[in-house]
Here is the input.
Amino acid sequence: MAFSWVGGSFFVNHRNSRFSMRTLLFFIIQFSALQICAISLNLSSAFASESESAHAIASPSINKITIARGIGNYVPLEMIQDGKLTGLHIDLINHAAAQLSIEVEFISLPWGKALKAFTAGDIDAISYFGYTKERAKFAYYYAGNILSDTKWVLIALEERAQEFNFDHRFTGLSDYIIGVEDGYSHGEYFDHKKDLQRDTVSNFKALERNLKSKKNDLAMISYQELLGFKEQGFFDGIVALTPAVGSDPQYIAFSRAKNNSSQLRNIAELFAKELESFKNSDEYRALLKHYNFYHYQ
Here is the structure.
């Protein structure tokens, strides 16, 4: 009696009885061993694939990113000094990028154009970017990627400062025209308060011009920016009113709109970890002192 393998099963061949039961057992053991090897190889391949995927998540697959910013000088956060872009935000971004071996290209644009390019997915990231629900549809925000906090104030001609009485809810301001810059968010409450009259202008110089011509009664601006602009010779005779009307964190946000948005999300997460770690260091505290940061708060 002999045995043969056909179509995945053993068949007995009665015409040839030279094979013993020992021979049968030998074939069965050899076949089982082959199956075990195949399973082992498949498992090894699967674990190798999972390991490679985990490594891809842990390591950035992008080695250069473009970051849009407003074209102005926003002391001490983002400004041109001696022909070089510098400031607290810039140093923070460059630090995180260096730790991740990522090259950064900053693109300075009028804010409306910067926002449009970012929204369209033409830019990888954007700096000095406040959070809104609308923006979160096309931007990745992470708490670790907060660069600074902005304190919002209303400003007016010094000679008119006593005319305005208001609170944090802007009560008493419905009869006044408030200048705001195009594309800016001044906090979700102000942005969506419908009983206020707003005049949207292209840049901070128009805010100043409209106050001095009395076309606008008030303007909304970051207190840090107001102090920085005053140091540059702007907003003479214009003062910040009290109380301050809000404070918002400002982020580096990464694009959801680009084709490689999943990779940018990975970069955003890694940036957040690097910045969180750096903000606990003596080097970060030295950076705040270097830029005299608390003077502008």
